Structures are given as structure tokens and as C-alpha cells.
Amino acid sequence: MRCPFCGNEDTQVKDSRPTEDSSSIRRRRACPGCGGRFTTFERVQLRELTVIKKNGRRAPFDRDKLERSINLALRKRPVDRERVERMINGIVRQLESMGDSEISSEVIGEMIMEALKALDMVAYVRFASVYRNFREAKDFEDFVGAISRRADD
Q: Could you tell me how far CA 105 lies from the centroid of its own chain?
């Protein structure tokens, strides 16, 4: 593993342990060149996934991009980091087990929305505002109103 600080390709693993949900291995590493320390995660990948964007373009699935967008929606929300990690792992496992190596961005977006809805309603509305491209306050009102009506039913 290359050192992110100096680029040295010969780093040493100092400690390895499974994450709490045993879905990945956390490795603490040290660089003998610069003395820098950093953490890496090793995860199982069942298949290579390709995302089909709304414009038809294809791109390799990027777990980090998925994680960044979820974390952006959850910014400053009181949600346990482990719950978020389990949610992300669950979404990735669902995508990998769908049987198809090409998945539309719409399917991924809907999966994220459903997971966020169960995790944190504020994050759900935040994500929906970007995903559904809200343009004005009325869009928020309509969306939140629909949520309220469903909760009353």
C-alpha cells in the first residue's frame, strides 16, 4: 500500500482487526520512509459494478462516492457512525447481489432514499432535495407534505 504522505510503496501493517459488523478489515499502517501513520479498510467485492447515468454514460461504481453523498445528507445529524457504515454495506451488498453488473443511477438513488428514510428523516429530505432536483421552496413543501400524509395513514 502506497503511503499517502510521501508515496513510499513499502508500508507496514502495524495492527489488523475486523470492523464491528465484520464486513471489512481495518488495518493500521506505518510508513518507514516518513514515519506517517494511516488506516486502510479491506472489503469483499462480489462483482465489478457499472453505473448507468441518467444521460446514458457508464461509470464504474464508486463506494466512496456513495459514502460521501450519504455523509453529506447526514452532516451534523446525531446518527451513530456504525449505523451509517452498516447502511452503506447493506446497500452495496444489495447492489452486488442483484445479479446484473450494470445498475442505473436511479435504482441506486432510490435505495439510498429508502435507507435514509429509515435512518434519519432530515437526511432523507436533504438527499431527496438534491436527488429529485428541488428548485424552490414549494418543492420542499410538497415533498414534506407527502411524507406527513403517508405517516398519518
A: 13
